[in-house]
């Protein structure tokens, strides 16, 4: 009776053919591939065979078109173009630190004078100690009197500036600046400290010593032969005109500076100077002049 081949039954049922048993004992078995989920086991792939993906699309034309890249902006170049555009002055005010680099203070105004007075008193004390040690009391008393008088003279710049220059408005700053000239010995240091950065630089001076020499010459020119060297002049600011300074860091003001000789105010001013000055607000919220020179004076015509 012939024996049926089991492979014939497998072919009839449509099942895959079972591999021969000797394939299990080969030295290099072929790589196994896991079948996708939901699908039956597939036949082993022989070397040299190739296959295609069953789910590969026939036409790629229905896929979304590629998105064009967004052009990047050259940020440094954009910032350079932005900075090159003109900016209105109101939107970008001058910083107080840039317009006024040195603010007024009591130490800056009195510091040099206090050093001189302190040195004078120290020297006077040494001289008195030596004289009393030699028992020259009459000479010690004379030196004390003269030394005390000298100390008072040296304190003169301090006495004339006991009042603090409060300059909450530009008009107050003008009056304090020119008021420092109205003394027998003008207080040039206060005037220098009431100037902004631009006010301390001009074609006439560039330092404090030059500033003092400039005003000494101007005062003598204004006096002429009308007053002596030690006769003080009186400077008054009149006819002040200017915009409101609230919330601003710089303003332009107009005024008339009238100059009198002390003791002869009834004769009227010897000079009347129409002026226009730029003012800057400092970090201390006080106002400073941006011009430290005297405008050209127009002398008043008076009958003699």
Which series of helices and strands comes N to C? HHHHHHHHHEEEE
Strand order of the largest sheet: 1-2-3-4
Classification by helices and strands: alpha+beta
Strand content: 5-15%
CA radius of gyration is 49 Å
Number of strands: 4
Mean of pLDDT: 77
Helix content: 25-40%
Multimer state: single chain
Distance between the termini: 168 Å
- Tally of separate helices: 9
| Anisotropy-based shape | globular
What are the SSEs and their pairings?
Blueprint: H1 6-13, H2 75-84, H3 96-99, H4 106-133, H5 137-154, H6 156-159, H7 170-179, H8 188-193, H9 208-223, E1 233-242, E2 250-261, E3 271-281, E4 287-289
Antiparallel strand pairs: 1-2, 2-3, 3-4
Helix pairs in contact: 4-5
Report what the structure shows:
With 304 residues, the protein is an alpha+beta fold. It has helices at 6-13, 75-84, 96-99, 106-133, 137-154, 156-159, 170-179, 188-193, 208-223, and strands spanning 233-242, 250-261, 271-281, 287-289. Strands 1-2-3-4 form a 4-stranded antiparallel beta sheet. A hairpin with a 5-residue loop joins strand 3 (271-281) and strand 4 (287-289). The chain is globular.
């Amino acid at each position: 009776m012939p024996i049926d081949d089991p492979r014939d039954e497998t072919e009839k049922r449509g099942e895959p053919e079972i591999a021969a048993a000797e394939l299990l004992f080969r030295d290099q078995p072929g790589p196994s591939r896991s079948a996708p989920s939901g699908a039956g086991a597939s036949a082993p792939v022989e070397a040299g065979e190739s296959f295609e993906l069953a789910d590969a699309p026939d036409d790629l034309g229905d896929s979304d078109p590629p998105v064009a890249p967004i052009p990047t902006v050259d940020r440094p170049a954009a910032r350079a173009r932005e900075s090159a555009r003109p900016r209105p002055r109101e939107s970008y005010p001058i910083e107080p630190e840039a317009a006024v680099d040195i603010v007024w203070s009591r130490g800056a105004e009195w510091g040099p004078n206090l050093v001189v007075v302190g040195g004078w008193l120290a020297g006077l004390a040494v001289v008195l100690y030596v004289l009393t040690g030699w028992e020259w009391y009459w000479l010690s008393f004379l030196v004390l009197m003269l030394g005390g008088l000298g100390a008072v003279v040296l304190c003169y710049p301090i006495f004339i500036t006991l009042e603090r220059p409060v300059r909450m408005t530009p008009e107050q700053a003008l009056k304090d600046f020119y008021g420092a000239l109205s003394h027998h010995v003008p207080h040039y240091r206060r005037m220098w400290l009431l100037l902004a950065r631009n006010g301390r630089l001009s074609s006439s001076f560039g330092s404090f010593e030059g500033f003092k020499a400039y005003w000494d010459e101007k005062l003598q020119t204004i006096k002429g032969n009308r007053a002596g060297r030690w006769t003080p002049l009186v400077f008054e600011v009149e006819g002040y005109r200017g915009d409101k300074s609230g919330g601003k860091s710089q303003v332009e003001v107009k005024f008339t500076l009238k100059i009198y000789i002390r003791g002869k105010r009834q004769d009227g001013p010897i000079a009347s100077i129409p002026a226009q000055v730029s003012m800057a607000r400092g970090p201390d919220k006080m106002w400073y002049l941006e011009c430290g020179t005297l405008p050209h004076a127009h002398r008043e015509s008076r009958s003699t």
